[in-house]
From TrEMBL:
Lipid biosynthesis found in the keyword field: yes
Protein name, as recorded: Fatty acid desaturase 6
Naturally occurring in which organism (per UniProt): Austrofundulus limnaeus (Annual killifish)
Residue stretches spanning the membrane: 47-66, 72-91, 111-129, 160-178, 190-208, 228-250
Record-linked InterPro entries: FA_desaturase_dom, Fatty_acid_desaturase
Lineage: Eukaryota, Metazoa, Chordata, Craniata, Vertebrata
Amino acid sequence: MQGSPDQSREDGGPRAGEAEERETLMMELTRMVQKVMKESSWWERRGLDCSILGAAFLSLPPAFLLLSSSHLPHFLLGMLLMGVAHAAITVKGTHLASHGTLSDSKVLKKFWAVFFIEVCGSFSAHAGVTGHVKMHHAYTNVMGLGDSSVWKVPSLPRTIYLFVAPLAVPVVTPLVALTHLDGCSLVWRLRTVLMVVLGLYSQYWLLINVSGFRSVHGALLCMLVCRAMFSVPFIHVNIFQHVGLPVFSVKKTPKRIYQMTHGVLNLPRNFLLDWTFGHSLISCHVEHHLFPFLSDNMCLKVKPLVSRYLTQKKLPYQEDTYLSRLRLFFHKYQELMVLAPPITELVGVQ
Ligand SMILES: [Zn+2]
């Protein structure tokens, strides 16, 4: 990992006009990224990611049919196929839908958010968009707002938190959704409950009627295994890329380019997670936080430009491997996931 907040101009205080200069860095980088956007085709901007999601849906019919097989390797292949498709739809799909990246149309953006987050992801679209886009992205690593503390469960021991508890994500997610409906109108609450039930019941019905499951327990267990297949890396990725990095006070949040370059970290490319979670959650998380309107493929396309620009301007471009982060979180679990993080002040650039 390179760069640390302590390295940033603690040696003297800000020069005159430095704040303005830093502000223009973000504007300059934005102009460069927008130029790449304008020069990109529809396929690059949206088509490729929509096709990956389409392929995930198309792999569901063969997955249900394979699950009807009494031949164990075929059955396991069906399980794997459904688990991978489910991860792509509920992680990559819900994430892109929450940012409105799947369409230009306002109505379609709303439709995809409800479809992916509620029907497929068993969560509330309203709570998902508020929590992820309006809090986590707007207040990245700001104490008590977008600091990823929602992922912390200090009462759990590290091994349970890191490797066992994530398996309960498919069960916990709809229950958490219910607790987030308090401020919503009755119509919204009813819609969310109906959409979540529709998603869960559709998979159950298909397992019984297409895959030929004979017992309720068998079908429910199959749903749990498929839905929990990527839960462990899902929890890991959510904490690895923010927790342990500088946390800011809401009163002294640095300018956006500093906030994102200090508070976000990229993991290396990973064949399986690139497809299922998307580049914006794996190797292009910094790019995603700087430009949340970009699709996964566009984040990957602007990555060389962004990393070169930040390095040239002597701003951090934080990267670390999955295993290195896992080791860090395992050995410093108490410090990172139980105790409150110290507040960082970037001297001279507030
Ligand atoms: Zn996001």
